[in-house]
Amino acid sequence: MDENANVIWGARVSDDMKGKLTVMTIITGVKSPWVIGPQNAKQREGARQQLSNDLGIEVLR
61: which residues sit within 8 A by CB, 6+ positions away? Predict the structure, then answer.
């Protein structure tokens, strides 16, 4: 992340989310091959699987 990046964050605790974590990220102005743009379903699934493999985590959407 650039040292001049404007980062705004927050947190909310809710009793109905016990044992769960939801993360939402909004990123703008990024020029990276890791940002998945408009693709057909087969390309999107391949990119999602590659990202999962590279990061070592399951990418759900």
Answer: 48
